[in-house]
Amino acid sequence: MATARMESVGPVIMGISKQNGQFRGHTKPSSQTGPTGESSQPGKIPAVAQNPAGGSQEGPGIRFGDDWKKRLQLPPKDNRIKTSDVTATKGNEFEDYCLKRELLMGIFEMGWEKPSPIQEESIPIALSGRDILARAKNGTGKSGAYLIPMLERIDLKKDHIQAIVMVPTRELALQVSQITIQLSKHLGGVKVMATTGGTNLRDDIMRLDETVHVVIATPGRILDLIKKGVAKVDKVQMMIMDEADKLLSQDFVVLIEDIISFLAKNRQILLYSATFPISVQKFMVKHLQKPYEINLMEELTLKGITQFYAYVTERQKVHCLNTLFSRLQINQSIIFCNSTQRVELLAKKITQLGYSCFYIHAKMMQEYRNRVFHDFRNGLCRNLVCTDLFTRGIDIQAVNVVINFDFPKNAETYLHRIGRSGRFGHLGLAINLITAEDRFNLKVVEDQLVTEIKPIPGNIDKSLYVAEFHSASLNSEAETQEQETLPLAVKPQAL
């Protein structure tokens, strides 16, 4: 099971390294326990994730007739229960897509045993060169759905940029570049580069003097490099947009349109997201050529995530959070606030309560953001307080609890926040602290997402969010309607 690796924590020393988002408090006895170890999923981020110059790893050659599967260095098998979000497949295997053996080795060594539904639908179409508009739930394997066909089509004999992956945040760029490098490590020299704002432009310029096959980038930085004539994209055959709804929002759409104007007319464009507003439809009509549309969103929320709300006053929120920490079996948690100031204040409060805590937000220096992201992903801390910076695509398998300390303003943000738990069909818990001002938003979110957010019970069944306690069937939910509720969790009288 993916678990957080906890380090021994000394006494609280406030004010030290405050900028880097890392607060630690002394260890406080609670039920936040779990077996020690690191995530069996992609965990440690090597140098490329911290250095956007990137690179790739080369594996040993494979001779004809090798029993190559016996030579794989497979991660520990993940035996946690998975929901139909990722198991409701057609029964295909990765070998069915006629992929290079070296790429298959990278896939299996990632711990990916069989393609998920979005991968089954997407991989063969992407390999054919057709444009794709794909909609699938958070955490169901969208990255693999585009990275696998992208790497299959890379020609190592050509020394120019062949594919661009556009993402909205720097952290997601680092994550995607890490996955790309791991998948391609046996391919014998795929050069991967991550380039984002907030990093040294000169380093990127020097890196592009060398061979680069794949660029993972945020829109502003790659457009800057293109306009300077450093990043030559006229021969790019594939442009991928992950979290496409965000990339086509008002924040980025002008930059995206500008980038596309530098690409060849016969390029392939792949769009992936969990939500597609009207802006995506307009973009599709203008730039995609007879796109293949994939929609795996019969319902919007992940099946493995159980959602609760606690009705509190603003002054009671910290006390309620402390109660949750003491009662829940948290592997790792992400706690969302609606402003950067509240992120830092809450992180300080959590530390004073005796729990180790990191925080991250967009106003931090990129160096510190990278460090916090890296350390939290590697399990060095159990709790992370953040803004919506962390809602897009971030995949940390050990996270089993998401807490909305501040309830989001719209259903789309809510959907992306709770999607940080229950990754790849696993179990997760989403808890919302609701004030009188939030109760109408709560009803709107329930209606728009066609989901139910229940009042929090006095004792939350661990089988809902802790893999070891999960019963044989997800459908055998215990009847908790008449359980005593938490003192602070009073159901709103009129929503």
Automatic annotation (TrEMBL):
Keywords annotated in UniProt: ATP-binding, Cytoplasm, Helicase, Hydrolase, Nucleotide-binding, RNA-binding
The protein here is known as RNA helicase
The opening ranks of the lineage are: Eukaryota, Metazoa, Chordata, Craniata, Vertebrata
What's the EC number here?
3.6.4.13
Q: Broadest EC class?
A: hydrolase
Classification via SUPFAM superfamilies: P-loop containing nucleoside triphosphate hydrolases
Organism domain of life: Eukaryota
Tell me a Gene Ontology molecular-function term this record carries: RNA binding
The protein's matches in InterPro entries, at most eight in alphabetical order, are given as: DEAD/DEAH_box_helicase_dom, Helicase_ATP-bd, Helicase_C-like, P-loop_NTPase, RNA-helicase_DEAD-box_CS, RNA_helicase_DEAD_Q_motif
Q: Which PROSITE patterns match?
A: DEAD_ATP_HELICASE (PS00039), HELICASE_ATP_BIND_1 (PS51192), HELICASE_CTER (PS51194), Q_MOTIF (PS51195)
Q: Where is the Helicase C-terminal domain?
A: 304-464
- Give me the ranges of the annotated region Disordered: 1-83
| Chain ranges of the DEAD-box RNA helicase Q domain | 92-120
Q: Name one GO cellular component term.
A: P-body
Q: In chain numbering, where does the motif Q motif fall?
A: 92-120
Assigned protein family: Belongs to the DEAD box helicase family. DDX6/DHH1 subfamily.
Where would you find this protein in the cell?
Answer: Cytoplasm, P-body
Instruction: Give the reactions, separated by semicolons, that this protein catalyses.
Output: ATP + H2O = ADP + phosphate + H(+)
- Whether Cytoplasm counts among this entry's keywords is yes
Helicase ATP-binding domain: from which residue to which, for each copy?
Answer: 123-294
Q: Where is the composition biased (Polar residues)?
A: 17-42
- What Pfam families does this protein's entry cite? DEAD, Helicase_C
Q: Which PANTHER family match?
A: DEAD-BOX ATP-DEPENDENT RNA HELICASE 50
Q: Does the keyword Protein biosynthesis apply?
A: no
